[in-house]
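so my prof wants the structure for this chain in the C-alpha cells format not the other one, which i didnt know existed until like an hour ago. anyway here's the sequence
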Amino acid sequence: MIERGYDKEIEFSCNMRFGALSSEDYKLMKQAGFRMLLFGLESAQQDTLDRINKNLTVEQIRDSCRQAKEACLEPHLTIMLGYPWETREDAFRTFDLAKYLFEKGWADTLQATIVIPYPGTRLFQECMEKGLLNTLDWDEYDMRKMIMKSELHEEDMKEITQRMYKLFFSPRYVMHRLVKVRSMQDLEFIMRGARKVLGHISDFKV
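here's what i got, hopefully its the right format
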C-alpha cells in the first residue's frame, strides 16, 4: 500500500483483533494510511472470554489499545453486555475497563450494545438447549433489548449501557478530543459525534 502510494490518497479503517499485532505492526499501519481500528471488547471477564473462545486475555486488550494509540491510530471499542452467566458486578467490570481505556486516552470511541444470540451461533444453541431465550421474534433482535434471560435486570443493563456512552462527556475524554482539534472540520466532526452519542443514550433510556 505504501509502495503504491495509497497512503497519500486514501484513509483506511478496519476490524482488528486484540493481541494480533505488535507495536511495529501498528506503526506500519499508520504509515500505510490507516486511521481507525475497530476492536471487539466482548467482556472484561476472563471467564467470559474463555467461554466464547476469544483466545484472548484482558491484559492483551489493554496492551493492544495502548500500542495502537502509541502508533497514533484511533481504537474504536465495540462492547457487548448481557451474557446470561454474567452478574451485575461482571458487567460493571467491563464498564470499568472501558472507562480505564478512555481515561488513559487509549480508546477514541466506543459502541455498547446488548449481546444477541443469533441463529447459527454457539450461544444461540446454548440458549435453546437451556431455555434462556425470552423471544424468537426476530424484530426484537436489534441489540437494544435483552433477548436472553440473565441475572441482570433489563433496567440494570440499560443503565450500564448509558454509562458507557456518557464516558464521551467525561472531562478527561473531552480534553483528549479538544486538544486534537486543528480545524473547523475537526470541531464539526466532534459535534456530529456528540449528537449521535446523545441518540444512543436515549435508545437505552431506563
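also thought this was worth mentioning. The chain has a mean pLDDT of 86.
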